[in-house]
TrEMBL record:
Residues 32-126 form the Acyl-CoA dehydrogenase/oxidase N-terminal domain. This is Thermophilic desulfurizing enzyme family protein. SUPFAM superfamilies: Acyl-CoA dehydrogenase C-terminal domain-like, Acyl-CoA dehydrogenase NM domain-like. Keywords: Flavoprotein, Oxidoreductase. The lineage of its organism: Eukaryota, Fungi, Dikarya, Ascomycota, Pezizomycotina.
């Protein structure tokens, strides 16, 4: 297949940060401070980069320089060994400045820890060492709405074939997570593979209204061979899933974990929108001279103060809910990573409902804030050079990932019937 060249941002523009951030942060507060530094860099030209819609190679390089890709990884391999509760806050901070890069970071943190959840202990250790030692960025071609990739066994290898309409960050990744079903079984196999190989062919067709720098377009997988030893959670001798790894509730924690990733970059985008709008209103919005209760400044107008106050209150409450859910899921990982089989269906279900609650609220509040800020910034704020529209476009794009109506229904059954959700690709 002919090499496709697509416009990309230049990693050299952020080269200075490789030396500036040569040491990893060593506390939770320091990691959050590093995330805010990254956000400050991204905020300088976020609107321009969004409009140029180039492949985000420079932005991924910035994440690598910052050390944020290593946030959750074990210290013994050079990682930060922070819990997911910190990871979610870091995603949120980056998304405040750039929703696309917050999303890429969130997906990387999920995919880079996949082996910890569905792999054997040996696979988890080997995978973590590989990712951290090379400072790899991990993308994923795991879109459950499409047909699963077809997997065949060929001696000591499994072979992946198929295609996905969406993959996230694949074009700019070093490793890609593949997932499919083994022929003749109902067993799903996850594996991390090098991205730069002829069997992985990207469509370069991500031209959507939002999250334009996430490279979330299609991908074709053609005869990608993976050693059986890299089939996460499977026994290489029997060619069967390990019951103590994959057939227990712990393995399904990947789903609420990534759903909470979504909610945190939604929340970051919404908070970023309010911050951006408030700065614009303070500097540029003019008071309305025909209201009958005229003010000298827009910041003295009742309806503007009321809207900003209401948006702020709802976002503050949403942030508290998101942090509470993060604490819940972090506690499960802390309690059961050493004994995965001890996690119960009910404990897993309870956390899933906390996560579903956050998904509902971040979607509702986020869309309301990112569209409502135009009412308090004024007509001139719709200029492309301002870039206020990117917050709504980013949030609107990803909140369609899986319909929030089903999360509301799921929570309704929990309230009325005391049912936990069935474990699916979206719960």
């Amino acid at each position: 297949m002919a090499q496709v060249t697509v416009p990309a941002t230049d990693p050299a523009v952020y080269s200075q940060y490789q030396a500036k951030w040569s040491a990893l942060p060593d506390t939770a507060d320091a990691w959050l401070a590093r995330a805010r530094e990254v956000a400050e860099v991204l905020a300088q030209d976020a609107a321009q980069r969004d409009q140029e819609n180039k492949s985000p190679r420079a932005e991924v390089a910035l994440l690598k320089h910052s050390g944020l890709l290593k946030l959750l990884a074990p210290k013994k391999y050079g990682g930060g060994e922070q819990p997911w509760s910190v990871g979610y806050k870091v995603i949120r901070e980056v998304a405040k400045a750039d929703g696309s890069i917050g999303m890429l970071l969130g997906y990387h943190l999920l995919w880079s820890t996949t082996a910890n959840v569905v792999g054997t202990p040996e696979q988890a250790e080997r995978t973590q060492e590989l990712i951290v030692a090379n400072n790899y960025f991990v993308g994923g071609a795991v879109n459950p709405r499409d047909n699963d990739l077809k997997i065949t066994s060929d001696g000591d290898y499994v072979v992946f074939n198929g295609s996905k309409h969406f993959n996230t960050g694949g074009v700019v990744s070093d490793l890609t997570v593949l997932e499919g079903v083994l022929e003749g079984t109902e067993g799903h196999i996850f594996a991390l593979v090098p991205t730069r190989q002829t069997g992985i062919q990207f469509a370069h067709n991500w031209h959507n209204i939002g999250l334009r720098l996430t490279e979330s377009g299609g991908v074709k997988i053609e005869n990608v061979r993976v050693p059986w030893t890299d089939a996460l959670g499977w026994d290489e001798s029997s060619k069967k899933p390990r019951e103590d790894i994959l057939l227990i509730p712990f393995a399904s924690l990947l789903l609420p974990t990534i759903q909470l990733v979504f909610s945190n970059f939604y929340l970051g985008i919404a908070i970023g929108a309010l911050t951006f709008a408030s700065e614009y209103t303070t500097a540029s919005t003019r008071a309305w001279p025909f209201g009958g209760d005229n003010k000298e400044s827009a910041t003295d107008e009742f309806y503007i103060l009321e809207r900003y106050g209401n948006f702020f209150a709802h976002l503050r409450a949403t942030e508290a809910l998101a942090d509470r859910a993060a604490d819940q899921i972090t506690a499960l990982y802390s309690r059961y990573s050493g004994d995965r089989s001890a996690l119960t269906v009910d404990e897993r279900g309870e956390v899933a409902e906390w996560v579903a609650s956050v998904k509902v609220v971040t979607t509702d509040v986020g869309l309301r804030v990112t569209s409502g800020i135009f009412e308090v910034t004024g007509a001139r704020a719709t200029a492309l050079k301002v870039g206020l529209d990117r917050f709504w476009r980013d949030l609107r794009t990803h909140t369609l990932h899986d319909p929030v109506a089903y999360k509301n229904r799921e929570l309704g059954r929990y309230v009325l019937l005391h049912e936990y959700p069935a474990q699916t690709w979206y719960t």
